[in-house]
Structure formats: structure tokens, C-alpha cells
């Protein structure tokens, strides 16, 4: 099996983000000749000129496309047009320019939101086209799924070694805790930790709590992506997950316990639950390139809670230092 990373120049879009930083660190251990991370301030990857400039400056032989415009249910409901257009145009143009530049390998990191709303659990890659995605995130999910179609088409016509990965919901230290755009775990951690610090008697949570989700620790996701880049050369999409689901109600109880929040949990049933269930079949990744997630679920969650709590304590300490002493 040929290693597609060792000795090659690698470009990582989204390499400064939550997942991207871990992927770049893991890539560095795989022996590339160089890693280039185009920053959004310098390269607008939604624009043709920005992509051309990034490829010209990075001179990549391998591209890992992690960059995306993302958010939780609320952000998806408020930005369906933006999430569709920006994710689609960025990926479509990037794959085309990679082909024209003679890039040897292209890795697209897709989304579990591409699966149909009522996919049988556990989700298998063969179920990907058996229905329409859950409505609140369908524009985002479909935009990313079109990159699978493009990857397969470019492999068939041009011989581009383009692979497509589908990670389940990610979590871990350094996640986005902004309530306007965060996903479920960081949003709940913020509510519980902030509620405890403020002495709140309750927190409000969207939906009924009956929906289920699967979560993959961010460092494990990075391992899976780099392993696939090194070892996988095929046209079939591949799930990255752990194969275990938890209901949102169970998740809130666990996070509240880890955060030390003892108040009431109130469910706002006027808000959507999103996809009813979500859990992946991870067997294809294990069989094709040897990926198995290693981080125990509660240990990863504990680390994530502590990272947010520590960041809050640091911010509080910094705020108490007078400007003259900073």
C-alpha cells in the first residue's frame, strides 16, 4: 500500500479551524515535504481567483478540503441559501482547479447531514441516496453531497484520486462555543457551565430531547482523515464514526453532571429536534484503511467541559487585571 502523504506537498483548507488544526498536526507526523494552510484573510476560497492563488502559492500534490460554512440547527435555518451556495461553489471550484493543476490526490470531508432524514440506524454508506436530508440542514448537506458526485465523476473521466469521507458530529476542546453558531455539545456545555457559575435555577434546551446523535472526538476524526489520505484510493464514500448513539435528553443529563449544574432542564418543544436519529456504521473505514476511534466517550466529554470551564476562568482572571498591568 502506497503512502500518498509522505514526501509530498499538502494543502489543507480549513486548516486553522477546530478540526483543521488537529489534521495539520497529525499530517506533520506523516512526513509530508510541506503543509500549506491558506488563511481566509489571504485567500477567499469561495472565489475563483482565491482558489487559483492558493494552489499557485501552495503548489500542492495532495489537497485535504476541510473548509466549510457550518453551524447548528438555528444557523442552518437562518442561512440556507448562504450555506448551500458557499459550500457548493467552494468545493466545486476547488476540485476543478486541483484537476487542472495536476493534483495527485483530493480528499473531501463531507457531512453526516447529507444522509436522508429517516435513514435506518446505523447509517451505512449505501443508504446515502435513499431519501431527502432533514429539512433544517438539507441545503448544507446537499451542497456537500454534490462534491461526492463530482469526485466520482472526476475519478471516472480524469483519473483523479478523489476520496470522500463522512464524519459524524464532532466534539472536543477548542470547539465553537458561540451560541449563535455552535453545535449541540458546545452549546449545551456553555448553557450548563454558565448556568452553574451564575447560580441559575434552570436552562432551556431546544426540542423534546428524544432525538439521538453520535459523536466523534475531534482528535480521532483527524486520525481517520489522515489515515484515509494515506491509504484509501476508492470511489465509495466512507463513514468516520464510532457506531454508538445517545439521546439529547441523556446527553444533557450527562453534561449537566460533568459541569456541576443542578438546576432544572426545561425543554422548548416549539423548537425543532432536527434529524430523529443519527449513528453511523463505521465498518468500512476499519476495513479499508484501519480506522477505529480510540477516545472513550465520557473521557472526551469531560475534557471538553473542562476546556470550556478553564477558558472561562482564564477570561475572568484576565478581566480582573487592570489595564496598566496587562
Q: Can you put this structure into words, describing what you see?
A:
- The protein is of the alpha/beta class and 326 residues long.
- It has 10 helices and 12 strands.
- Strands 2-1-3-4-5-10 form a 6-stranded parallel beta sheet, with helices on both faces.
The helix-strand sequence is EHEHEHHEHEEHEEEHEEHEHH
N-to-C span:
54 Å
In what range is the share of β-strand residues?
5-15%
Low-confidence stretches: 316-326
Strand order of the largest sheet: 2-1-3-4-5-10
User: Sheet with the most strands?
Assistant: 6 strands, parallel
Radius of gyration: 20 Å
Count of DSSP strands: 12
Mean pLDDT, all residues: 93
In helices, the fraction of residues equals 40-55%
Structural class: alpha/beta
The count of helical stretches stands at: 10
Shape: globular
Amino acid at each position: 500500500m502506497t503512502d500518498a502523504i509522505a514526501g509530498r506537498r499538502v494543502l489543507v483548507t480549513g486548516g486553522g479551524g477546530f478540526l483543521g488544526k488537529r489534521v495539520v498536526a497529525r499530517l506533520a507526523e506523516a512526513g509530508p515535504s510541506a503543509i500549506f494552510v491558506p488563511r481566509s484573510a489571504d485567500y477567499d476560497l469561495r472565489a475563483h481567483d482565491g482558489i487559483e492563488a492558493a494552489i499557485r502559492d501552495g503548489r500542492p500534490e495532495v489537497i485535504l478540503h476541510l473548509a466549510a460554512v457550518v453551524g447548528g440547527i438555528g444557523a442552518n435555518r437562518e442561512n440556507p441559501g448562504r450555506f448551500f451556495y458557499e459550500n457548493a461553489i467552494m468545493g466545486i471550484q476547488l476540485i476543478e482547479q486541483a484537476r487542472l493543476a495536476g493534483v495527485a490526490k483530493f480528499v473531501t470531508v463531507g457531512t453526516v447531514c447529507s444522509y436522508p432524514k429517516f435513514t435506518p440506524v446505523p447509517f451505512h454508506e449505501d443508504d446515502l441516496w435513499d431519501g431527502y436530508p432533514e429539512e433544517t440542514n438539507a441545503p448544507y448537506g446537499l451542497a456537500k453531497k454534490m462534491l461526492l458526485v463530482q469526485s466520482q465523476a472526476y475519478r471516472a473521466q480524469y483519473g483523479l484520486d478523489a476520496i470522500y469521507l463522512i464524519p459524524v458530529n464532532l466534539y472536543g476542546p477548542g470547539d465553537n462555543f458561540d451560541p449563535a453558531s455552535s453545535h449541540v455539545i458546545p452549546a449545551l456545555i456553555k448553557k450548563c457551565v454558565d448556568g452553574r457559575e451564575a447560580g441559575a435555577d434552570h436552562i432551556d434546551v431546544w426540542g423534546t430531547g428524544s432525538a439521538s446523535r453520535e459523536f466523534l472526538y475531534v482528535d480521532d476524526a483527524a486520525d481517520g482523515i489522515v489515515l484515509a489520505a494515506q491509504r484509501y484510493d476508492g470511489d465509495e464514500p466512507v463513514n468516520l464514526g464510532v457506531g454508538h448513539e445517545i439521546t439529547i435528553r441523556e446527553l444533557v443529563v450527562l453534561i449537566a453532571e460533568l459541569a456541576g449544574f443542578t438546576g432544572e432542564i426545561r425543554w422548548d418543544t416549539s423548537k425543532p429536534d432536527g434529524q430523529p436519529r443519527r449513528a453511523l456504521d463505521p465498518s468500512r473505514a476499519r476495513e479499508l484503511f484501519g480506522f477505529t476511534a480510540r477516545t472513550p466517550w465520557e473521557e472526551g466529554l469531560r475534557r471538553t467541559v473542562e476546556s470550556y470551564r478553564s477558558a472561562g476562568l482564564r477570561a475572568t482572571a484576565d478581566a480582573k487585571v487592570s489595564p496598566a498591568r496587562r
